[in-house]
Amino acid sequence: MTDPATPRLAALTGLIADETRAACLLALLDGRAWTAGELARHAGVAASTLSEHLGKLVAGGLLTEERQGRHRYVRLADARVAQLVEDLTAYVRPGGAAVRAPRTLRESSASGAMARGRTCYDHLAGHLGITITRAMTERGLLRQDAGFALTDEGIGWFGELGIGLERTGRRPLARACLDWTERRPHLAGVAGAALCRHALDAGWCVRIGTERAVKVTPAGALALDAHLGIVAPR
Amino acid sequence: MTDPATPRLAALTGLIADETRAACLLALLDGRAWTAGELARHAGVAASTLSEHLGKLVAGGLLTEERQGRHRYVRLADARVAQLVEDLTAYVRPGGAAVRAPRTLRESSASGAMARGRTCYDHLAGHLGITITRAMTERGLLRQDAGFALTDEGIGWFGELGIGLERTGRRPLARACLDWTERRPHLAGVAGAALCRHALDAGWCVRIGTERAVKVTPAGALALDAHLGIVAPR
DNA sequence: ACGATCGTTCGGCGCGCGCCGAACGGTTCC
DNA sequence: GGAACCGTTCGGCGCGCGCCGAACGATCGT
């Protein structure tokens, strides 16, 4: 009669349907591991309260824990959970219907705001992520008009850069992740994660402090210009 | 400090985090309008209880209501809500190796028809939807290997059939929806909805009873063979 | 050794929520 | 008109959940 998935659907959403737990999941969207104490301070509740919340989130499979000494590190279980939280968050962000007029690549990269980039779980977001995504689209490496997928040229582009694209499980090679500051899609999925990792490994950008913000290095600006035609702000 | 979307995320998931409301949303995934009484019987609760649930779901923007006489018809607000429920359901389903075996003959024939073809909100799912999606992929109309998008040939294919693809808002032209019986992706999005509507309008398939199951007509079999090379889909 | 820090467990408190049945207003059909 | 039906509102009930503080164990630093 009723769908057998009903109780699981209710249980899953019930796991997120608490402001404290929701705050934890959103904080963990940066893809890094947080300690229980950090999350407790971040959410503004007692440590004992948050301990119980973490227990539920781990038991529910949304988080994985990693004990080191007297610390309990916790992170999102996998990319699927990150995508789930992203999807829910994208739905709930205000003004979803507003689509801004597309700016030219020159405008978007000349402002200097590209320095304001950040990671979203395991891929690049913020102005940096959007600029890269839009440059890839304009160069025919990515197509967004009929879905969201890499073109053959795009796959070749990753190969030329020596970035491996291993398809693990069911995770899509390319998928759109909606940025909540710019409200525009940026590249996520296996390709987005690989590109982000390469950008950090190759020194194209570096993390700023303990936040999820990243900054483009001079070498990174050269690389982005060479490979994507993105003119670095000077 | 904490993400401003936190309370909205908790509120949204809290709206779904109830077995009765979750059962309603899953039932409404067929894209049709249900009366309050039907949903009450389906969920197995008193009419008064369900009335309050509907009030919350409507107030929360997940459902829209339509009063006709002494009936209160309710349906999913839009495709975004349908996608949200689909995403959550897709997350919660794949773990289930426990697929209940139908017991009675009536159940088995009903589930068989559902597996063969059915609608998922506004697009085709089940074996029929997957077969069509696979055929489109093999013919180069759709690509799944690097994301999920129509190819230029695919866009032309819709044009040749006289199926209009209007880009409304930000709904993607093509997107994958995971089928829960076959556990394979099938075409959703604007293109999926347009194809489903065309299939019903042109008599390629007809609805069976009041469920969401659909059956391919002889004329539909000919059309699927002619346009996609599908031989006798069952 | 010591204190400091981190996390967990446990009792207890209070609020909120889902549920029902009874009563009521509105609509349809005879 | 009356009867049957659909949906809503309103008490009232009970359970569950989130929260805290206090106590405890475990770990790290000195």
From TrEMBL, chains A, B:
Signal peptide: none
Xref: SMART domains: HTH_ARSR
A Pfam family: HTH_20
Gene3D superfamilies on file: Winged helix-like DNA-binding domain superfamily/Winged helix DNA-binding domain
HTH arsR-type domain segment(s): 1-96
Stated name of the protein: Winged helix-turn-helix domain-containing protein
